[in-house]
UniProtKB/TrEMBL annotation, chains A, E:
Lineage of the organism: Bacteria, Pseudomonadati, Pseudomonadota, Gammaproteobacteria, Pseudomonadales
Name the record gives this protein: Amino-acid ABC transporter ATP-binding protein-like protein
Keyword Metal-binding: no
Gene this chain is encoded by: yhdZ
Matches recorded under PROSITE patterns: ABC_TRANSPORTER_1, ABC_TRANSPORTER_2
Family label: Belongs to the ABC transporter superfamily.
Keywords: Amino-acid transport, ATP-binding, Cell inner membrane, Cell membrane, Membrane, Nucleotide-binding, Transport
Domain ABC transporter: 16-250
Organism in which the protein naturally occurs: Marinobacter adhaerens (strain DSM 23420 / HP15)
UniProt topology in membrane: Peripheral membrane protein
Pfam families linked to this entry: ABC_tran
Compartments, record wording: Cell inner membrane
One MF term in the entry's GO annotations: ATP hydrolysis activity
TrEMBL record, chain C:
Domain of life of the source: Bacteria
Keywords, in A-Z order: Amino-acid transport, Cell membrane, Membrane, Transmembrane, Transmembrane helix, Transport
Name by which UniProt lists this protein: Amino acid ABC transporter, permease protein
Membrane topology: Multi-pass membrane protein
Cellular location(s): Cell inner membrane; Cell membrane
Organism name: Marinobacter adhaerens (strain DSM 23420 / HP15)
Gene3D superfamilies tied to this protein: MetI-like
GO-annotated biological processes: amino acid transport
Lineage: Bacteria, Pseudomonadati, Pseudomonadota, Gammaproteobacteria, Pseudomonadales
GO CC annotation: ATP-binding cassette (ABC) transporter complex
Entry's Gene Ontology molecular function annotations: transmembrane transporter activity
Keyword flag Transmembrane helix: yes
Spans traversing the lipid bilayer: 24-42, 54-74, 94-114, 126-148, 183-205, 217-237, 257-279, 364-386
From TrEMBL, chain D:
Residues of the ABC transmembrane type-1 domain: 155-344
Provenance organism: Marinobacter adhaerens (strain DSM 23420 / HP15)
NCBIfam families given in the database record: HEQRo_perm_3TM
Main location: membrane
Protein name (Swiss-Prot/TrEMBL): Amino acid ABC transporter, permease protein
Transmembrane segments: 28-53, 94-112, 119-137, 157-178, 190-218, 272-293, 300-318, 330-348
One biological process term in Gene Ontology: amino acid transport
Topology relative to the membrane: Multi-pass membrane protein
InterPro entries: AA_ABC_transptr_permease_3TM, ArtM/GltK/GlnP/TcyL/YhdX-like, MetI-like, MetI-like_sf
Length: 256, 316, 395, 362, 256
């Protein structure tokens, strides 16, 4: 339960460490003995067939789900039942959901400022200024005073990204951030994510956008049946997958 | 169409009564109605149809009774209703006589230690809504410079319930009812009736204004019953009396003259009413008289010939 | 195959095949029917009333009523007019409705939340409460609270006595009545000052929070001010308040404030009954906020309390408000059951005794219905305004 | 990597202690709550149990048999006949019993999955039963002795009122709802006014009008039974509520459904009857059932206009001086009767909802 | 802007004729002076950018929308306010919607039989037999007793096609029948449509599936801003578009 020794300024190795982690839903064994270490600034893409446990895994990392066995250590803090730890970790981890989950009763700007103001206790002025910066970064500063219901899907997802960024998290988790979008909107969002990736943020992204994986990922992780079947740099992963299951999956996806 | 035609067409008389007041109108467990007010209705039915059972009863609260009569919901109201000027004049009603002379009194809980109404200052009083008693009470207390708290219920049933539950110290109503209501208490000896009578309450059947024929029918059926008592005609001897040579009796029973036809009724209407229901005295004794649970003496309700004020115009 | 020539076809259809014409026709028929029916009703009523010699018009409102009413919020005695009895009845209706709305809302929210409690016992008790209360007729519950409970309360002489100031017996609940003395103005001043201060602090705290992000314990400080300042000013002014204590006078209590059993029974029954419905509304409102919203809020690091306050409740309220409104309307309408136990509400007093004494049923019933209609429309109006204000903005 | 079969979920021990810790004593707040509620339960359940059962009197033939400190259920059993049939003549009560039996036969199987002919029994219950009842209960035809409606009472009257009210208010509600959604502004206006006015006024004012004022509005000589008028009042009042419930369902049907029906060439009534209403009604079953339940409960208000429904009969007998203080027993009995019916109906609707779900919720 | 004359027997010329048709939504002029003649057995594909009025146009043809000026004559019957005409036309015209619009409370078979039984008054037995034939034609006879909610999107759309066919319409209208489907399901539906096209039915199809257009269309119509900008046989349309707007549109679509 200690932060790993820091030897490189800026790049913290093992900012996320998952060790022998298991999770069950009732009797159903969703995640089986996962082990993964993510260094600061790494960009990981997770893929795998539907129901393989990708979402569950990523949700365990900011404890939206509880794991029952093994360890998850985020930014040096182990995730246990201790609420204080959970709160601390969640402050460092931003999450972007497949279905955006924006707060429909708040404007875009208010959505973005919620966490800075109430969790980080940033003065509102400051929070708003910084929110506007992020909104600019996702290219929708002009929508700041609209309500989420008034935006298109792509715009909504970009707000969701801005909202997560406003917490200034060390780690960003994306759970199929583009799969609820129309093709043209997918591009909008991917562009923003690629830009983000360029800025050196630690990112874990569940996605089937193989183009994105090839462009920005440091590592691609393939999950199936609750296990990590294979992990490799994208080049290797796509050209020379080791496992039979991975090969089969890639065939399907690429044929598409 | 006239009320009489309507009634004949329906085949029965629709009569408004209380929802339950011993001696006046009360259903038994089988829904058979008895009481002096009920008998007044039956007599009218007997006079029209020759059948004392050709009548249906509509139980009404005091509040509802005039509306029901005005609207035509009932053909006559026989619900211990006090004859007052306002009711007679502005409600569009006509009082067809008096079948019981009453007055308002007080039933008190013995525990409050009062034996005259003048000591009731500050009392809580259970009372029925939409009655003259409600108005008299106000007048009486105002005149005496006393205060009271009225607890107003819909039915006399509920006023007793409220009184029994201790919600009020006093229950006020027509004196005739007080005895009956007292008998509904689980311990009747815990309550007593004060000697005071604070109002005149002539109770009688009511009909709608504007149909004089109907008004006359109801009026004269009642008079016929009172006259029958005066003439000694009873339900038991009515058949024998048909042979009487007293012209008054002959006119009453329809063996002579066309008295009924003048009203639009069969000529033997008086005979039918007395034969099937009884004369006024029988009606009284059967329902409220000394031998009933109410045990009320005739008092002023005795015939004028016997020192009372029951006096009916002659059938002539 | 059909053989058809298009050019000879008439430009427009025959009138009876044209939907527009048809619709006009149906509507004309409908409105004619309604007017015809209405006219028949009115005509019948007028001619019936005329032929029966029933007086008409609203002149009766000015006549002397002559009967007593146990409870009046506006000044009343038997020498006043029937018009006044209307106001007495109306204010009594409004009083019990307002009390019922407040109590039912509080109770309903508590039970609705309890229903979702993680505490098994509490959740089950709430469930039992809801399933029992809302499946039993209200009238029965009113009778129960009135007749069954009242008869088990002591008589005035044996009152339940709480510190000589508060008495409970079968005539009601007696509370001390505060009577202000000279110098009470200072206390009023203190109270106003305290309120002003709290408002000021709230504004200041909000500003400060916006500016610096620090959160000020507004609630606790506010409560302290609201309690302390009036007390201090009361003491400073030399305790200018006397309590008119209820005391046994004759065979009844006099003085103090009385809550009569009729009011209490009606209030309790209405509140408990309505609360069971509100509880279900609250529960479904809270459940209607999707899990994604709570998850998003948690993912933003908001703790449970803030999640509830900033994300769940504002969204749940939109779902809760419309059905809540209709429960309020139901409560107001149900308060008319007062007549069954003798609470002098509008229906009991005005549509009861006044109607009976004056015999003007049509006018009285029309007025009564108009009042309920107005209350309904007003409440709906306000709710619609509110709804529009909080509606989720969409494209 | 471990193989699946060897790994079992870590024992989420079903031990009661664990369960209690999680469900009753998680945190100090919950613990306090639990203890508080438990205390209330313990202190109230005992006396209640005593009153209801242990100290209660069940047998005997007259009031003197009620000696215990508990409830006097004897009172109920002695008056049961009155509570069920009102004034209905003893020797004709078999007719009512037949109806009760038919009612039970047509509706009890609805609770039993896979009862043969369930649907037909239900249909009989809805369409056949009223017809049978129409001839059987009042009599007067087929050589049956006539029984005036003024003699009906008790539970039987309550059920008649509720049953007819329920069966009549649904179609009226549907028509009103369709009217309110109509394209024709005047029809819509009429429906809106009708619905809003009925919903705004208290039921007892409606009943008052129906019971004592109605003849004033009608031409002379036009008149019908007091019971029928009360029924019409209740039905119209509830159908306004029903209309609003159904309108909710209609509004929730996507426009595409209307268009698809149009494209198939179905006319207005077929479109509504075959496509829109089946979906809309299914969607608002809970609302409809709630309206039924409230109608059922509201039938008690006929007491105020002098009809003896079950509450009326009990109310009129609890004051019998022969029986001391039986008000609570009486009210509890009525409450129980209503509760059984209402709770039963609501359970049934939940059942139905689950079954009718054809998986089109996306 | 005229159809090439057809002289084969059995082909009725001008089964749909639209002449100088205009439509407004309030003040908004959606369709401007449309002229089109479709012969029996012709297969027309309509394409164009979003909001160009394609759906509105096609919906006017079976009078789901009303036009305000000009004439639409379907199978010799002019669409006016006359309810009898509308009913007659709707009987001859089947429509398949983008979002299927199946009736969720009826089984697949019941969906298909609804119109034959209630509108055409076919005996139920017969109607069911014929419905089963069409369900076989769209290759899902085994789903006949399921409810729509239990089918995949592609299957649902095939049911929608079968339902429209069950009316034995002379003309079929398709409004983007594949755009609500996942890529793998699109193929299912297109296959069925291609087969249908082969059977000689008159078809109007709004779609952006250019492959489909190339394979089966007799003519491709390009709409923009409520006008018909260009119409041509597919070969010509794709290889040699005349109008600048068409060229621009084709570039976008084909680049995608
Ligand atoms: N609350 C739950 N209870 C029980 N099983 C669940 C629950 N949530 C998810 N599962 C199951 O866990 C497995 C993994 O789900 P998960 O959502 O993580 O898959 P996924 O890889 O994200 O799939 P997809 O690509 O479809 O989103 C699935 O089989 C799912 O059915
Ligand atoms: N009911 C309506 N009221 C007003 N405007 C409408 C209405 N329906 C459609 N429109 C407008 O009419 C125009 C044409 O719409 P239409 O749906 O026909 O376009 P489309 O070509 O089918 O587009 P898409 O490819 O997006 O389906 C659009 O600008 C749309 O906004
Ligand atoms: N209590 C009553 O029912 C009647 C009281 C009184 N006789 C009246 O007519 O007003
Ligand atoms: Mg997932
Ligand atoms: Mg379209």
């Amino acid at each position: 339960m200690q932060t790993p020794p820091k030897d490189q300024p800026g790049k913290k190795p093992g900012i996320i460490r998952v060790e022998g982690m298991h999770k069950w839903y009732g009797d159903f064994h969703v995640l089986k003995d996962l082990n993964l270490t993510v260094d600061q600034g790494e960009r990981i893409v997770i893929c795998g067939p539907s129901g393989s446990g990708k979402s569950t895994f990523i949700r365990c990392i900011n404890r939206l789900e509880e794991h029952q066995q093994g360890k998850i250590i985020v930014d040096g803090i182990e995730l246990t039942d201790d609420v204080r730890h959970i709160d601390t970790v969640r402050r460092e981890v931003g999450m972007v959901f497949q279905h955006f989950n924006l707060f429909p009763h708040l404007t875009v700007l208010e959505n973005c400022c919620l966490s800075p103001i109430w969790v980080r206790k940033t003065p509102r002025k400051e929070a708003e200024a910084s929110a506007m910066e992020y909104l600019e970064r996702v290219k929708i500063p002009d929508q700041a005073n609209k309500f989420p219901g008034q935006l298109s899907g792509g715009q909504q997802q970009r707000v969701a990204i801005a909202r997560a960024l406003c917490m200034k998290p060390k780690i960003m988790l994306f759970d199929e951030p583009t799969s609820a979008l129309d093709p043209e909107m997918i591009k909008e969002v991917l562009d923003v994510m690629i830009e983000l990736a360029g800025s050196g943020m630690t990112m874990l992204c569940v996605t089937h956008e193989m183009g994105f994986a090839k462009t920005v990922a440091d590592r691609v992780i393939f999950m199936d049946g609750g296990e990590i079947v294979e992990q490799a740099p994208p080049h290797e992963f796509f050209t020379n997958p080791q496992e039979a299951r991975t090969q089969k999956f890639l065939q399907q996806i690429l044929a598409h | 169409a006239t009320t009489l035609e309507n009634v004949k067409e329906k085949g029965h008389l629709q009569c408004g009564v209380t929802s339950g007041l011993p001696g006046f109108s009360q259903p038994d467990e089988k829904g058979n109605w008895t009481g002096i007010d009920v008998d007044t209705c039956r007599a009218v039915a007997a006079a029209i149809f020759g059948d004392a059972n050709a009548v249906e009863f509509t139980p009404l609260t005091a509040k509802e009774r005039f509306t029901a009569l005005q609207s035509g919901e009932i053909d006559m109201l026989s619900r211990n209703t006090t004859w007052t000027l306002t009711r007679d004049a502005s409600l569009g009603l006509n009082f067809a006589g008096v079948n019981y002379y009453d007055g308002q009194g007080f039933l008190i809980n013995k525990g409050i230690g009062v034996d005259d109404a003048t000591q009731l200052d500050g009392a809580t009083i259970c009372i029925q809504a939409g009655t003259t008693t409600e108005l008299n009470l106000s007048d009486y207390f105002r005149a005496k410079g006393m205060e009271f708290k009225p607890i107003v219920f819909d039915t006399s049933e509920q006023t007793v319930q409220g009184f029994a539950a201790g919600r009020c110290d006093v229950l006020t109503s027509d004196r005739s009812q007080l005895a009956a209501l007292r008998s509904k208490l689980s311990d009747p000896s815990s309550a007593k009736i004060l000697p005071n009578t604070i109002s005149k309450e002539p109770l009688g059947p009511v009909v709608r204004q504007g149909d004089d024929q109907w008004f006359n029918i109801v009026k004269w059926v009642l008079f016929a019953q009172i006259n029958a008592e005066e003439l000694g005609v009873t339900s038991a001897n009515a058949d024998d009396m048909l042979k009487s040579d007293n012209p008054n009796i002959q006119r009453l029973l329809g063996t002579d003259g066309d008295m009924g036809a003048k009203l639009g009724l069969p000529d033997d209407f008086g005979y039918q009413a007395v034969k099937l229901v009884g004369n006024y005295g029988e009606m009284y004794d059967r329902n409220v008289g000394p031998d009933t649970p109410l045990g009320l003496d005739r008092g002023i309700n005795a015939l004028w010939t016997e020192g009372g004020i029951m006096y009916a115009p002659p059938v002539r | 195959m059909k053989k058809q020539t298009i050019d000879t076809r008439p430009a427009g259809p025959k009138p009876w095949y044209d939907p527009r014409v048809r619709s006009l026709f149906f509507q004309a028929v409908a409105i004619a029917l309604v007017f015809w029916g209405g006219w028949i009703l009115v005509d019948n009523t007028l001619s019936n009333m005329e032929s029966r010699g029933i007086s008409t018009g609203f002149g009766f409102l000015g006549e002397t009523a002559g009967f007593g009413i146990i409870m009046n919020l506006v000044p009343y005695d038997a020498t006043m007019s029937y018009g006044r009895t209307f106001w007495v009845g109306l204010t009594n209706t409004l009083l019990v409705s307002a009390m019922g709305v407040v109590a039912a809302t509080i109770l309903g929210f508590i039970i609705g939340v309890a229903r979702l409690s993680s505490n098994w016992l509490v959740a089950k008790m709430a469930l039992v409460y809801i399933e029992v209360i809302r499946n039993i007729p209200l009238l029965l519950q009113i009778f129960f609270w009135y007749f069954a409970v009242l008869s088990n309360l002591p008589s005035p002489r044996q009152s339940v006595d709480v510190g000589g100031a508060l008495f409970l017996n079968n005539r009601g609940l007696y509370l001390p009545d505060p009577v202000t003395q000279e110098g009470f103005g200072i206390v009023w001043g203190g109270i106003l000052l305290a309120i002003a201060a709290v408002v000021g602090i709230r504004i200041w705290a909000k500003k400060r929070q916006l500016a610096t992000g620090q959160i000020f314990p507004t609630f606790k400080v506010g409560v302290a001010i609201l309690v302390l300042v009036p007390i201090i000013s009361y003491l400073v002014a030399g305790r200018p308040l006397e309590w008119d204590l209820p005391a046994l006078r004759g065979f009844n209590f006099g003085g103090g404030i009385t809550i009569i059993p009729e009011l209490a029974a009606l209030w309790i029954a209405l509140s408990l009954y309505t609360a069971s419905f509100i509880a279900e509304i609250v529960r479904s409102g809270i459940l209607s906020v999707s899990k994604g919203q709570t998850e998003a809020s948690k993912a933003l690091g908001l703790p449970n309390g803030l999640t509830l306050r900033l994300v769940v409740i504002p969204q749940a309220m939109r779902v809760i408000i419309p059905p809540l409104t209709s429960q309020y309307l139901n409560l107001v309408k149900n308060s008319s059951l007062a007549t069954a136990i003798g609470y002098p509400d509008l229906v009991a007093v005005f549509m009861g005794t006044t109607l009976n004494q004056t015999g003007q049923a049509v006018e009285v019933v029309a007025i009564t219905m108009a009042v309920y209609l107005t209350i309904s429309l007003l409440i709906s109006l306000f709710m619609n305004i509110y709804n529009r204000a909080v509606a989720i903005k969409e494209r | 990597m471990m193989t699946e079969s060897t790994m079992k979920a870590p024992k989420k021990a079903l031990r009661p202690v664990k369960w209690m810790r999680e469900n009753l004593f998680s945190g100090w707040f919950n613990t306090v709550l639990t203890l508080g509620v438990a205390y209330l339960l313990v202190t109230s359940v005992g006396p209640l149990l005593n009153w209801f059962f242990l100290d209660a009197n069940f047998v005997g033939s007259d009031p003197s048999a009620c000696t215990g400190a508990g409830a006097c259920w004897l009172f109920i059993s002695q008056r049961l006949n009155f509570f069920i049939y009102g004034f209905y003549p003893d020797e004709l009560q078999w007719r009512v019993d037949v109806m009760f039996l038919l009612l039970a036969v047509s509706f009890v199987p609805q609770f039993i999955e896979r009862f043969p002919g369930r649907k037909w029994l239900g249909l009989f219950g809805i369409f056949g039963l009223p017809i049978v009842g129409y001839f059987l209960i009042p009599g007067g035809s087929f050589g049956l002795e006539e029984v005036q409606s003024s003699k009906w009472g008790g539970l039987m009257l309550t059920l008649i009122l509720a049953y007819i009210g329920i069966i009549a208010s649904l179609p009226i509600g549907i028509l009103l709802a369709l009217g309110r959604r109509s394209d024709m502004p005047i029809i819509r206006g009429i429906c809106v006014v009708f619905i809003e006015v009925w919903r705004a006024v208290p039921l007892i004012t409606v009943l008052f009008m129906a019971s004592v004022m109605l003849p004033l509005f009608l031409p002379e000589g036009v008149n019908f039974e007091k019971l029928a008028r009360a029924l019409i009042g209740i039905t119209l009042w509830q159908s306004a509520y029903m209309a609003e419930v159904i309108r909710g369902g209609l509004q929730a049907i996507p426009r595409g459904q209307y268009e698809a029906a149009d494209a198939l060439g179905l006319g207005y009534w077929r479109k509504m009857g075959l496509v829109i209403l089946p979906q809309a009604l299914k969607m608002v079953i809970p609302g409809i059932v709630n309206t039924f339940i409230s109608l059922f409960k509201d039938t008690t208000l006929v007491l105020i206009i002098g009809l003896f429904d079950i509450l009326g009969t009990v109310q009129s007998t609890v004051t019998d001086p022969a029986w001391q203080n039986v008000a609570i027993e009486g009210y509890v009995f009525v409450a129980f009767c209503f509760w059984v019916f209402c709770f039963g109906i609501s359970r049934y609707s939940q059942n139905l909802e689950r079954k009718l779900d054809t998986g089109h919720k996306t």
